[in-house]
Amino acid sequence: MAACSVEELLAKAEQDEAEKLKSITVKKELDLEFDIGNLLASDKNRLESRDFREQKKEDFLRSLARDNTQLLINEIWKQPTERVDEAIVTKLPDTVTPLPREKPPPKPRPPTKWEEFARLKGIQNKKNTNLVWDENAKDWRRRWGYKRAKDDTKEWLIEVPVTADPNEDQFAKRATAKKERVAKNEFNRLKNIARAQKVKLPGVGLTPVAQQCKEDLVRAVSVARTSTASVGRFQDRLPKEKPPKNTGKKRKFEPLIGNFSTEKQKQLDLLNLMNGKKPKLDINKAVDNQIREEKREEAAARYKKGAGKKGRRGNMPGKGGKGKGGQTGKSGGGKGSKFGGQGGKSGGQGGKRRGKLGKH
Hints:
Organism: Zoarces viviparus (Viviparous eelpout)
Main location: nucleus
Radius of gyration: 46 Å
Strand content: 5-15%
Number of strands: 6
Protein name: Ribosome biogenesis regulatory protein
Structural class: mainly alpha
Distance between the termini: 157 Å
Function: Involved in ribosomal large subunit assembly.
Order of helices and strands: HEEHHEEHEEHHHHH
Subcellular location: Nucleus
Helix content: 25-40%
Shape: extended
C-alpha cells in the first residue's frame, strides 16, 4: 500500500514537472486568428464534448487557455523588437478588431509651447547621461537634483561682480532668483495644463506683449484703480475719464443678531406663499406694467404717424412758437420770433387767436 502511494506521488511529481516544461509548439487543426494590436487570439477549432465531459471542466479550460496563450506569445515575438533600459520590448502593430467603447478614445495631448518651438526650429531631444564629472568634487555626480554637479548653492563665498552694488547681499539675490525661476516654471506648467483642457485663465492685469490694445489698457487701469485699500472709492479720476464698467454690486446681508420678529414674519410669509394653491399676484405691479405697456404702444403709434414732428419750427415766420404753457400754438409768434413780439396767451396754448405783435 505504501509502495503504491509512493509510485503515485512520483507519477504526480513527474506530471507536474511536465506541465511546467511544456513545449512552446502547439498543434491546432485550424490556425488561430490574431489581432496583435489588441493582444487578441480567436480560436475557431471545434471542442470535443467527450473530452470536456471526461476531464474536469477547470482542468480542460486551463489547458485550452494555456495553449492559446502560448500561440499568442509566439506570434508576439515574431514582431520587431528593441531594447529599452535593459529590457526587450516589442512594437505592436495597429489594431484590426474594432472594440466598442462607452466614450470616444482620448485625444492626443496637444504640444506645449516648447515642443512647438522645437518643431519649428528643428531641435531634437538628445538623451544625456544622468552622471557628469564634477571638477571641484573630483567625482561623478548627478546632472540635476540633490548633490548635483557644479552646485553653486553650497558655496560659502561668492565673488561680487564689478558692475554690482558692493553692499548688495549676493546670497539673498541668488535665493530670490531661484524662487522666481521655480515660480515661472510652475506658472508655465499650469498654463500648459489649462490650455490642454481649454480652460479660460483669469485676467492678470497688463501682460507684456508687443502691442497693447485699448481693452487691455482699460482693464489694467481698472485693476490698478481697485487695488487700493478702499477698492478705488476715494481714488481721483482724470478730467475725461469714463466710469468703469461691470464693477458689480456690493452684496448686503442681514445682521446675524437683530429683530427676531422680522425674521419670523419673513419665514411665515414664505410658508404661506408655498402652501397657497394660487400664485400670489401683485395687483399694483400688474397695473403699472399694463399702463406702461399702453403708453409705449401709444408713443410708437404717434411716432409712426409723424405727430412728433409738429411744432418744431417755432422760430419760422408765420408759425406758432412755444408759449408759457409749454404747448404749441397754430398762430402767433413765441418769444424770440422774427418779428420780436411775444406770443399771446392763446398762441401759447394752441388757440386760434393771434398774439399781440410787437413793434417793428
